[in-house]
Amino acid sequence: MTTNRDRQRAAARVRLEREMAVRAEQSRVRRRRNTTIAAGTGALIVLLAAAWVVVALTSDNGKQNEAAAEPSPSATATHCDWLPMVDPSASASADPEVAKNIKDVGKPPATGEARTGSQTMTLDTSVGTIKVDVDTAHAPCTAASFTYLASKKFFDDSICHRLVLQNVYVLQCGDPFASGYGGPSYRFAEENLPTGKRPAYGEGVVAMANNGQPASTNSQFFIVYKDIAELPANYTVVGRVTEGLDLVKKVAEAGVVADPSAEPSGAPSEGKPKTEVRIKSLTMSAPTP
């Protein structure tokens, strides 16, 4: 026969176990967000065995890993190195998801990229038009990559696959497969890192996701819709939104689709946007002084 004291002890034990489970889950979520958006949220083993994201954009379900390690500060001063996404010498130990999610449209020219002025990136999306002033002078390789991929219609009919609502406030796009792993057949070095700026990634900034390793930038990018207080200056700054940031904010207000496997309780803080953002087309203007 159980006494009141026994029942109280049992109830206290249940409460403690429940609290410990909640704390463990909170710790797991923090690790998931703060360990290597790379978006998405792995190591760069011959095949770049991870996806691309932004520091707290990581996800344990195979989406892009965000960077904890600091990428290479910049591309070379005189030319852009377009490195293979899948190393020709890759072994079977490399992550097959990367190879499965490559949209091969070739590589940009080895030389001749613009290195002065700026360009206008125009995204015609399902929620309206978003325009970005691209800093071609300080991110020439990134601008050249966008210009090349846009000419191949690489981004057309793709979905912005990730929205983050806490700590890191971004809408992530640029994966033609919306898998978190997708990109072209090449990668390149980071450049125009906002070292010393606070916040490094303020409202309206457009930057490139990576997987936390040097020279792991590809096609995935993120739009910052609210100042991010803490985010390492590890992601190439492409430019700044000049039109349509209000559209991104509305998408953020609508929230994300719940994923019970990632967020077992409470409102989800990241995931696929409830309001679909489909890029009908992405175009780049010619460079201007």
Structure description:
Helices cover 20% and strands 18% of the residues. It has four helices and twelve strands. The strands form two sheets. A ten-stranded antiparallel β-sheet has the order 4-12-2-3-10-8-9-6-5-11. It has a two-stranded antiparallel ribbon with strand order 1-7. It is globular, with a radius of gyration of 21 Å. Residues 24-49 and 56-69 have low confidence and may be disordered.
Give the secondary structure arrangement, pairings included.
Elements: H1 4-34, E1 83-84, H2 96-100, E2 119-125, E3 128-134, H3 140-151, E4 158-159, E5 162-164, E6 170-173, E7 186-187, E8 205-208, E9 221-224, E10 237-243, H4 245-254, E11 270-271, E12 278-284
Antiparallel strand pairs: 1-7, 2-3, 2-12, 3-10, 4-12, 5-6, 5-11, 6-9, 8-9, 8-10
What are the defining features of this structure?
289 residues, alpha+beta, 4 helices
